Amino acid sequence: MDACYQIDDTSQIISPGMIIFKDLLEDNLRKMIELVGDPARLRPHCKTHKMREIIQLELSLGIVKHKAATFAEAEMLAEAGVKDICLAYNLVGPNIARAVEFRKRWPDVSLQVTADHPTPIEQLGEAMTAAGVEIEVLLDLNTGQNRTGLEPGPAAVELYQMIANTPGLIAAGLHVYDGQNHQVDFQERETAVLAVWNDVSQLRDQLITEGLKVPRIVAGATGSFPIFAKIDDPDIEVCPGTCVLHDVGYGELFPDLKFTPAALILTRVISRPGPDRITFDLGYKAIASDPAMENRCRFPDLPDAKAVLQNEEHLVVMSQRANEFQPGDELLAIPRHVCPTSALHKSVTVVSGGKVVDHWNVAARDRFISV
Amino acid sequence: MDACYQIDDTSQIISPGMIIFKDLLEDNLRKMIELVGDPARLRPHCKTHKMREIIQLELSLGIVKHKAATFAEAEMLAEAGVKDICLAYNLVGPNIARAVEFRKRWPDVSLQVTADHPTPIEQLGEAMTAAGVEIEVLLDLNTGQNRTGLEPGPAAVELYQMIANTPGLIAAGLHVYDGQNHQVDFQERETAVLAVWNDVSQLRDQLITEGLKVPRIVAGATGSFPIFAKIDDPDIEVCPGTCVLHDVGYGELFPDLKFTPAALILTRVISRPGPDRITFDLGYKAIASDPAMENRCRFPDLPDAKAVLQNEEHLVVMSQRANEFQPGDELLAIPRHVCPTSALHKSVTVVSGGKVVDHWNVAARDRFISV
């Protein structure tokens, strides 16, 4: 194993268990800041880790703006001391009342939410007005992923105008998530991101021409944030997520990003069912299963391992080196997709300089904390 | 929606949220008992739901033997009052000390664990002896899944003898999980299960001939338990799991099993990004992603929905009826695989007769409770 993944004593670590290598995590945070030049331009997404302690590390480095997808994540951010939170999720149903409650509970926190449709905008405005509070709303733009948002164009102008005219709401800018921009080739990705920016900046100019304020443009994801950051525009806030912990998936997708996986899963062999097979305690209740079965993790110390079966608590691999392993032997696995992996764990073991130095709760894996 | 899935008032239910329809759950438990004739023959697997309240329902129906895969699940069972627990998982690493702790904490609970290799058997025996306690060990058999266990044969006899001879351990029988027997055709499945039983019963006879005791054979899964239950052998304990809640996957795989999905996910539309697209708040942090993306759930009230994109908090479907939906509209989704789905939720909303009657914690989704 690479020396950066040394753990002096694993005997007390329950497996399967997530390990955060704190030195690597801090390196990733520093690289993230270097790529944008100024921590004030960053708005990292906490869904990747859902941990208060990582937020506090980020705050200590000057990263004061943060992004969330759920109210539990937003509450975790507020509890960790964040004063500027973008809940990049269109509110419907009980989430409208939760937004009111959040504004009342943390009146000194700037909370921006997103919207792309008149009905929730109307409901949100009515709820805020009834409660005597206000909330900032970003217009959610569809830049090509076709998941949420309006395409830049006349309907987007009209909806932004509606937000600005709705009592209880403050038109606070644009939300530009471009998850579709995951071209492996950096030049191709840059071209695609700049095309998105061209459309978005034209829309922004038009909104301003019509007398509207567009104070911020919350833009980009791990693959595109360095490109958005290079655009000379003080209103752009960039939103990396995965690279805080990094993983195999984004490592392969974005070879230009020099982050190091900082969250691995400690797993043990529990059976050797055949001469070429090893069974690990690494089921899909402990490591994310949105990638294909054969691609859910990589073992740096067993690169030829080929997953042939995974169940809830078991991962069976084939390897030419299977005979070197027996029950109880340990390996570290790098998840292909770390964000849904961390959400599977109640807490993580934190290692620095080879020593276990802490345990952190994955606080926001619960979808409801108190709001 | 089918009347059995009526919820009178959903306005306070946060989405995505798991709903347990208690009347259907109780029907499933009754059907499970009917299929085996006597609740004493059952040893259902709690990994499907991980909830104390379901265990207490089962206990009230006379189901006194239970099965678990993790120490958190076993602890939840013991806390719920279960006195006979099979932890069907081969112990390595810190789990050996956890077994000692468990035996000390609940000395009146019969705990059986599984083993398939000399090294952990030796370690477990030493740990138990040092602590002055004993533990029952089932020999884990490989009946064709090639995941864990030894094939019935001479090596299995030798290892069972080793268990019996190891101080601190009590040879307690055989563990026969046959997850490979998922033939859709019942006759084919029955033939395969009876072939497994033929090998296992021959092994059992041989062990007895050699003077060993084989007090129990813990056998089968949801697809095979009715077949094992029909075998006239008082030592067989059958282990359905999924059918307690049931899901789309086992509904299609086992058409002979007349259970009804009792755990659904309430989801809301958050966007309509295009004339034929609906985006639900149903990402793979709320519904299991081990099935293929297009197969992760079924909407009974939108049968033509075809999933085209799923991310952590979003499910985008195409439907010819998309124009009938707008943000805030609700649907219920039946998970394809309910077991890893319930593990994604901290708690569930319990509905009976259309009313919300309770909230249950998914207690054992945490991998560590106190042992």
From TrEMBL, chains A, B:
Domain (D-serine dehydratase-like) ranges: 262-352
Superkingdom per UniProt: Bacteria
Gene Ontology molecular function: D-serine ammonia-lyase activity; D-threonine aldolase activity
InterPro entries: Ala_racemase_N, D-amino_acid_metab_enzyme, D-ser_dehydrat-like_dom, D-ser_dehydrat-like_sf, PLP-binding_barrel
Keywords: Lyase
GO biological process per UniProt: D-serine catabolic process
The keyword Lyase is annotated on this UniProt entry: yes
EC number per UniProt: 4.1.2.42
Family statement drawn from the similarity comment of this UniProt entry: Belongs to the DSD1 family.
Protein's name in the database: D-threonine aldolase
Record organism: Gimesia alba
